[in-house]
Design goal:
heterodimer, A: alpha+beta, Uridine Diphospho-n-acetylenolpyruvylglucosamine Reductase, domain 2, Enolase-like, domain 1, 5-stranded antiparallel sheet, 4-stranded antiparallel sheet, 13 helices, 28% helix, B: alpha+beta, Ubiquitin-like (UB roll), DNA polymerase, domain 1, 5-stranded mixed sheet, 7 helices, elongated
């Protein structure tokens, strides 16, 4: 049996109490939401917290609050399977609902939460293995005991891959996240939650709790999410393109955000592709030209599924598909 | 580290209360199999990648290998042992037997629990909806076709239709 290591389990009744418990135990404590990312990692001894703080009893985190203007505040503990069928999300935030439905399997979406998916650990072929496997080749730098990066042995940094389906699309949509810490609550753009490092992939302080995701009101934008993976279920994105395009009344693009998931340690902006779009209508030629510019920022490494060079080559195709869906 | 003290709790499994003492870091899968002797629920990958350990909690199919036993206390747990009604098999079990939808049988309890949830929510699922509903359960023997056919047959029988497996399903074309 792959067993969990022993730990003390807490179910605090408020966010403030959860933060206090995390502060009290520091690095020895971890938050858990749905558990579908943390518990497998604990079983493989990636993380061995002595204290696990469950957020399931924190009130108010299980609701989708639709505001007057159509924007929504999604509680971090909302199950993914509830979000993928939520009528307001399906109608007004179809790209987000689609990205949620693309996550893993129906069983895991019954357990996993949106907060957990937004904070999903980065992944790597050399890291997401059993303890014995990793020990046999010597631990990599993402493990506590290691110092080398096996995918790029000369590298001073970790190249583990951003693997959440929702992150590229919420970053492209300029969504915001609410964080609760010991000093109160703050709201930041979702894209500022992440940084380009496989180990320190989040900018939030460890004790800060992600409590809500805010999606901006429906307006003159359209978003999309397109995912590449080997199987149509289970698999993390090998490439996940989130796109959001703002247009004026003539169909001319006024702003565009394109984020490449699964192509680096954070959802990488395809800045040159975005530049091609602004001031243009989304014609097939413009979309193809924007797609071509996406090959360069896709920093694929040989640390996930499918051939590394092919994954880079198809980035333009997937960006073009995502943009075509924004028409 | 020494083993933590066991905790005493009552689990509601298949509509029956079961009091047991268990280590608080155990998953529901471990509690079911090791502390309640309900071994119908299988342990496969134990990492959420196969669906063999699927059980229903308050009617929703989840993976018992990633669900803490502690979190299941006070909830209604349903396992494959609770599918049959006394000596009468559940229509899904009947259909799986009729069509040979189980070969080695290891994935079967998990698939039955996922399929039962699907049919509760949707008594007339299309083939595509069945595929979606069972997309979290791996089977390495059957190639899935007989499983899909068995779910369709069970669904028809549960709707009260006088459905029999097609000769093609049983004997091939």
């Amino acid at each position: 049996m792959l067993r969990l290591p022993t730990f003390t389990y807490y179910r605090p009744k408020t966010a403030a109490e959860a933060v206090r418990q995390k502060l009290a135990h520091g690095k020895d404590a971890m938050y858990v939401a749905g558990g579908t990312d943390l518990y497998p990692n604990m079983k493989r001894r990636h993380q061995t917290p002595l204290h696990v703080i469950s957020l399931q009893d924190v009130p108010g985190l299980n609701t989708v609050e639709v505001q007057q203007d159509g924007s929504v505040a999604i509680g971090a503990m909302c199950r993914l399977s509830a979000l993928e069928v939520h009528p307001h999300l399906l109608l007004n935030f179809g790209a987000f609902a689609h990205a949620v439905k693309e996550i893993s399997t129906p069983l895991l979406r019954n357990m996993g939460t949106i907060g957990g998916n937004l904070l999903l650990d980065t992944r790597c072929t050399y890291y997401d293995q059993s303890h014995e496997w990793r020990e046999s080749i010597d631990f990599c730098m993402k493990s506590k005991a290691g110092s080398i990066c096996w995918v790029a042995p000369g590298s001073p940094r970790c190249w583990a891959v951003q693997s959440s389906d929702t992150v590229p699309v919420v970053c492209a949509m300029e969504a915001q996240v609410e964080l609760v810490g010991p000093d109160g609550t703050r709201r930041i753009p979702a894209s500022e939650l992440y940084r380009d490092d496989g180990i320190q992939y989040l900018t939030k302080r460890p004790e800060e709790l992600l409590t809500r995701l805010w999606l901006g009101a429906p307006s003159n934008w359209k978003a999309s999410y397109v995912k590449l993976r080997r199987r149509d279920t289970f698999d993390f994105p090998v490439l996940g393109v989130g796109a959001c395009v703002w247009t004026d009344s003539y169909g001319v693009v006024t702003k565009a955000n394109i984020r490449l998931g699964g192509a680096g340690s954070y959802a990488i902006p395809a800045t040159e592709s975005e530049k091609v779009l602004v001031g243009q209508q989304l014609t097939d030629a413009v979309i193809a030209a924007a797609g071509e510019k996406a090959m360069k920022p896709a920093r694929t490494m040989d640390n996930t599924d499918l051939d590394v060079y092919w994954r880079r080559k198809v980035a333009p195709v997937f960006v073009a598909r995502a943009l075509a869906a924004c028409k | 580290m020494s083993e933590p003290n066991k905790v005493l709790a009552t689990f509601h499994v298949n509509s029956e209360p079961h009091e047991c003492a268990f280590a608080p870091h155990k998953t529901l899968l471990e509690v079911l199999r090791e502390d309640l002797d309900l071994c119908g629920t299988k342990h496969g990958c134990e990492l959420g990648e196969c669906g063999a350990c699927t059980v229903q909690i308050d009617g929703t199919p989840v993976l018992s290998c990633l669900y803490l036993g502690l979190d299941a206390v006070g909830k209604q747990i349903r396992t494959v042992e609770g599918l049959a009604n006394g000596p009468t098999l559940h229509p899904l079990q009947d259909a799986f037997a009729d069509l040979g939808a189980a070969q080695c049988g290891y994935c079967t309890p998990g698939i039955l629990m996922a399929a039962e949830s699907l049919l509760q929510a949707n008594p007339s699922p299309s083939r595509d909806e069945i595929k979606q509903g069972l997309a979290g359960n791996l089977c390495r023997c059957t190639g899935y076709l007989k499983i899909f056919e068995a779910v369709e047959l069970a669904a028809a029988r549960m709707r009260g239709e006088d459905a029999e497996p097609s000769k093609e399903s049983i004997y091939g074309s």
